[in-house]
Amino acid sequence: MSNINLGIKQIAMLASNGFIENLPYKNEIKSAFDLSLVPSLERRRLGNAAKCAFTLLKDFDLSQTMPIIFSSFSGEIYRCLDLLKTLKKEHLVSPTSFSLSVLNATSALVAIMTKNHSEISAISADCSLEYGLINAYIKGQPQAIVINYEENLLNQSGEYEYFCLIIHIDNFNYTKYLTLECCKHNCLSYNQYLSSFEFFRHYIAKEKSKWESISNHLKWKWQLV
Predict the structure, then answer these.
(1) Residue 165 C-beta-side C-alpha neighbours within 13 Å
(2) Each residue of 58-73: pLDDT tens digit?
(3) Which of 121, 129, 157, 215 could serve as a FRET partner for 73 with CA atoms 20 to 30 Å apart?
């Protein structure tokens, strides 16, 4: 695969405590929802992915219509598990909850709330951030929003952990320039959360940076300048 090049205008991240408690840069990451821009009647039905997205996008310039890409390994998996538990117990599920459990629900809600009439996409992959960025690149548009969301296993308190990284791509007005290259690599292990936190860490650093991430049979080479 040839290199992809993207201008990065802005990024932001929100994560639950289990993901960030030991990170040296955790103060740069939001941890609380702010849904003040969402109508009160809409807030109750939002899952954590949408809550993360609306909290972070408050600080983004979305005055221009642009593609919105939601990328995740498993999406809101715990919402889906709750639906299955309800179906087993009551034999019926809420049509609203079911419709919001699909992978493209968050990108659709963001498009509706921001009156964005451009294309929306949803990507499910183990390298969810990488493929989300590739999807933004092949759109061929000057701007795009990538929403990268993941959920983890339940913690000791019985709650699940989550994080969301949002990247505003603008190939004409950017603060850093990303080059991403992919090549074959023999490896059978991958942490689908690592790329997002590594990208965030390198982006907030002042200096230029290069690093690599490895997935199943693929090596990803990153460069931010």
Answers:
(1) 28
(2) 999 999 999 999 999 9
(3) 157
